Each structure stands twice: as C-alpha cells, then as structure tokens.
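RETRY 2/3 - previous attempt timed out on the joint model. Re-submitting the same 795-residue input unchanged.
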Amino acid sequence: MPRTVTPGLTPAAPSRTSIAMVQSQSPGPTVRFEAVTKRYPGGTVAVDQVSVEIAGGSFVALVGSSGSGKSTLLKMINRLIEPSEGCTRIAGADVSAEPAPMLRRKIGYVFQNIGLFPHMTVAENIAIGLRLAGGDGQDADRVGELLDLVDLPRAVATRLPDALSGGQRQRVGVARALATAPGLMLMDEPFGALDPVTRDQLGHAIRALHDRLGLTTIMVTHDMAEALILADRVLVMDKGRIVADEAPRALLGGAGGAVAQALVAVPRDQARRMRDLAGEST
Amino acid sequence: MTGPFFEAMTRVPDLLAAHLLLSAAALTLGLVISLPLSIWSARSPGVARWTLGVASLVQTIPSLALLALFYPLLLFLSGLVGGGIPALGFLPSLLALSLYAVLPILRNGVTGLAGIDPAVIEAADGVGMTSWQKLRLVEAPLVAPVLMAGIRTAAVWTIGAATLSTTVGQPSLGDMIFAGLQTQNWALVLAGCFSAAALALAVDALLGLIERSIARRRRGVALGAGGVLIAGVLLALAPLWPTGGSVITIGAKNFSEQYILARLIGDRLEQAGYTVRYRDGLGSAVIYGAVSSGAIDIYVDYAGTIWTNEMKRRDIPKRAAMVSAIGAWSAQTSGVKVLGSLGFENAYAFAMRGDAARKLGVASLDDLVRAAPGLKFGSDLEFLERPEWAAIQRAYPIRFDSARAYNPTFMYRALESGQADVISAFSSDGRIAAQHLTVLSDPRGAIPGYDAIVLVGKAHARDAKFLAAVQPLIGRVSVEAMRAANYRVDRDDAKDSPEAAARWLGRRIGVVR
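RETRY 2/3 succeeded.
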C-alpha cells in the first residue's frame, strides 16, 4: 500500500522532547461494543445489536452509506449519543461509569464541521482541553509543539479561526483533539468538507500521527478508497449492523459480501477507467 | 442664563438621579429574570413558546396601564400577607418596568443561543465541557453581542417608560413632564423630555460601546464603559445616603391648586428646618393610600372625595360634620390625622359660558336636566367614574348629548371654543371668574362639601414641631385667594410657576412676610 507522507509531518520535524510530551503513556486502549443498540422514538433503529472489539493501537475505518449507523456507533463511544441497550467499554471499563465530560476529556474527537470556537485564538482553541483539566494558561510551549505536530507554523497561534483556510482549521481541530494526549482518537468524516488535495495530505498526516503516537483510531467515512488506504481494518455497516469486517487487502481481494463489494467497486471502477484513459492517450 | 427653560433645568438633578436609579434597578431585575429564562428557553422549544408568548403579551399592555395594574395587585398581596407591601412608589414602578425589560433581552438571548453554530456546541461537548463550562466559555461569549443589543433596547425602553412612574408616586423626570402639561409650562415639559432623552442616549451609547468592545475582544474598553455606568448609578445613589435630617415627602394630585398648596406647606416646613421633597401628580384614587401607607407624609385632599371614594358614604351631612367625621374615621382606620380645613372649598361645580347659560335659561342643575339632551359635556379625566357623578345622576336625571374627558386645562379651552357646552369645573378655579362662567346651583344638595383639608400621615400625626409649622395655614386660605393663586399658574400669559404662586399666596394670606 503506497503511503506518501507530507514532508513537514515526517517524524524528524518535532524535537524528541515534544514527541515524548505529546505521546500517550501506553499504546491506545481497546474498544469493545457489547450488543449496543440505538433506537429512536418512532421505531427507527440506527444501530442494531452491534458487538465488536477494536484492538488497542489499531486504525479502524467505519464505512457505510448515509444512514447506515456508522456515526451513531462512533458517538456511543464518547457518549455524544447514549445507547438504548448494550454497553461500550474502553480498556475494559464501561463508558457510562463516569460523568460524560470526564470521559470525553480522555478521548480525542475530530468531526467534519470542525467546530473551532470562533471567539478564541488558535492557541486558546488548542489549549481548551488543558484549561478544562485545570491548566493555568501556561500552555504556550505545549501549543507550539502541537502546531508543529500538525504541520502548522507557530505564528498562527495568535490568529482567530476565521483567518484560516479549511485545511488549516481541521489541522487545528486535530491539534485540539491531541492536546490532552488521549490514547483514543474518534474521527467522524474528518476530511468531508475539504478539497481533494488537502484531504489527501491530511489523511496521510493523521495516519502518521496515529503510528507515531501509538493511538487507537476509529474513523467514520463514506469514502471506501480513503478507508482502504488509511486503515488497518475496515468495518462495513448497513442498516445498523456490521456486515463486513476485513483487512483492506482482503476487501480488495473480493471478501466481505455484497454490500462491502458494492462500496469497493466504486473506487476500483474509477481507477480502472482512469487507467484506460491514460492507456488511450499514450 | 435665567430663561424659563434653565429655571426648569434646576429641578433636573434630583429627578434625574431618581430616574436613573429606578431604570437601573428595573433593568437589573429584568436581566435577573430574563437571562435564566433565555437559557432555559434555548434548551427547550416548549418553554420558549411560553416565555416568549407571555413576554410578548406583557409588551402589548400599554406601559401606563401596566404601572396602574400593579397598584391593586400589590394592595391585594399586601392584604394577603397582612400589610407591609408598599403599593405605591418604587416597588410597583420597579416591577412593571422590569417586566417591560424582559422581552427584548429574552428574545435576543433565545435568538442568539439558537444561532450558535451546532458544530461549536458539538465541539464543546466533544472536548468534555460540563454544561456550566459550555455556558461560560462558549455560549455566553458568543451570544454576548446579540444579547447586548437586546439589553440596549430594554434600557432605552425602560428609561422612556420610567417617566410614567410619576403616576404611581415614584419620582422621575416624568414629574416635570406631567406637572408641565397640567400647568401648561412648556419649558418644564421640554426640560423633562430633554433630560429623559439625553439619559437614554447616554446609556445607549455606553452599552453600545460595551457591545462593540466585546465583539472586538477589547476587554479594557468594555470594562471602562461598564465602570462609567456603575459610577453613574452610585452618584445617583448619593442623595439616599444618610444625611442626618429627616426628609418630609409632600404629596400632590395632578392640578395647579395641588402643586401650589404642596409648595405652600413645603415652604412652612422648610422654615421649620425640615428637608422637603415633593411627589407630584398622584391620582385621586391612590393619594390617600399613599398617606396611610407612609409613602407621603402630608397632602391636601377634599372632604367630599374622602367621604365618597374612601369611606364609600352616600349621605351628605353638613360641611363641618363631614370634616370631623372624616377625622375620626382616618385616625381610627389608618392613624392619619386631619389637621383641619384650609378655609376654602373646591367642589365639583357644573359651569357653562355665561352667555349660553342666559340664552338657554339654565341657572341650576334642575334646569340642566331639561337642556342636557342638546348639550355636550366636558369633564376631567376622573369625573365620569367618580361616585359624585353617580350621586348627582341619582338626584338629577341628566342625559347629555355626548360626554368627553379632558385634562383640566384643556377642559376650559374646550368650553371656551364651544367643543363643550357644560364642564365639571372646580369651584376654586380662577378661570371661573376670568372666563365669566356661570356656575349652576345644586337645589337638591346632591354634591357633597369639598373643604380642602390637610392630612398628616401617622409618622408625624403626633409630631408637635411638625404640626406647629403647618397649623398657621388652617382656616386662612379664602376661596378668593385660592382662585387668584390658581389663576396665576393657569392663565395663558405671564404664567407663574407653582413655587412663585405659593409664595404669592403665602404673602396674600399673611403667613409669609
């Protein structure tokens, strides 16, 4: 699998000490769903009896069409959505055992609409998790390291989010999620609103960070190509259930069943047509 | 500079302070009510429907009516808890104005909170903010500019509507506007309007500065402007700081004679060493309540008014018997002392233009019964609702062609210009002689006596020094002297202020050298 890493995000960029500070103490935790169900009033079942375990340190993509339940499943990890039945465990502990805000401070969360606080500077946005944890505002060094980590110049620290491009904003969103050194990273269509070039760059950057920091990363996407390129393992969802659970190479090899193969067919078709076009032109 | 406008401006500082305090208190209470309601409403659409609905409904009630409604409401509540809740003055004004301030703040608060990008809220939840942290760190700063716009609107409304608090006995810049309107002292009206408008503009400008500083993240400027506002309120509080001397509040209804007599009494008390303030423009229906509750210390009322309105009596005894019966009743029911009659009567009297009365052959109320179906009646604002009118109608079946209520001053104009043929005049009014009016006689004795009597609140009912200061006025004011003094204020040219007319009257009756 080709994995080109943007120059600024090679492990050589930040200093050794900053990596040590950013890096979580141990490899990311295991996440386990036990018969998790989300039912809405009116009878809609968004997630239907899902049981699956995600190994610590792995990069898992949740793929499916709109309404397949993938975002709902993801948000039941950090309890932005509470399950109707079943239980979610992180490193063996039930997520409902502690207040939701306390739980969420230990989990990085990045989503499509980014949600930077428009009245705070980039530095204040990135340091918000430290502030909630009782930081005293002496976070300038830490913010600088995080900006290095997501390949943004340190000079943007004093700017307001309005002054940044879409790609820069999502990099700030990632830095904010990483500030408290969480072992688990949840990403809900993190690149959905970005142009294709930025999307590609940021995708590789995220994968590089995942590898370097030893995170457990769960990423929701509707783009099978993105999932195949970035993830170690792809879970395909349909109508609230997991219908395929395969490694990218196995999916490309035809495994996973009809729904998964229909999703894989799209990028494969596109790739073939582009190859044909290239062949015609030469 | 000594023009009438600048003379009028000398009354501004005290009233401006009272006005600012009332407005600031009402706005603060409005904020205390509307901020939690905004948050609650923004979290629940069902609650929002109710809060915004009720707030909008309150806004449709005219502010004057809202103020007036609090008087009976507080009276009722006071009765429930066994007394002690003041139904006049600061409290009803504060409550009515606060209710008025709620809507703009609530509406902007709810709109502002609903307008926050849902992604920002999701991010706040995602990073692990508690509900309170989300409010403090994210929602409050983001909603602040919109909310400030609502607070500005509320501040301007409150300062404008506070002029109406005069009618429930709370001093404000409205005192000057109402008194000026009654005595046609336009300089006083202008000075009152000008001051109220200037206050509203200044507060709006300061709040606007705070709003812009918040939006531009300039905390220093916002704090500075807020500091100026708070300093203004503290300055306005200065007159309330203990001064050592006791302050006497003299009440007056809303016409010239009352303003003059209040000043006449005030001058006597000031000579005796008291500090005096005036509460002008109180309605007939509330002023007795004000003296019995202690909101005012002394005022002049008319025997028949107390007899019919407060004591609910329908029989009509001799004048002297009525005054002593009122004294006994008020002392027993509320501790209010009737010091005595000033010496003149200000009775309701039906008056017509002299020439018209002669032409129609009307000289008494009996004659009026016959002529009334072809005549237009002009009354003051209260008369048609008063028990006296009901008593007169029981004795004389008068049916006018039409009836219309006027300000006392405009009532005489209406009679002069022919818009009214008969008016409910006052027997001590200087304009009766000046306009050559015919006063109709009352052969059946249906109109009670209206001796002007001095009423002293419980606090000073046994205060010998206080009573001695006012006592020389008892029995000294003849109806001719009163008419002449009234005319000095009511005439169209070379008008006197009530203060000047009071000094003139004091010299005329020999109590002032």
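Chain B touches chain A through 20 residues (CB under 8 Å). Closing ticket.
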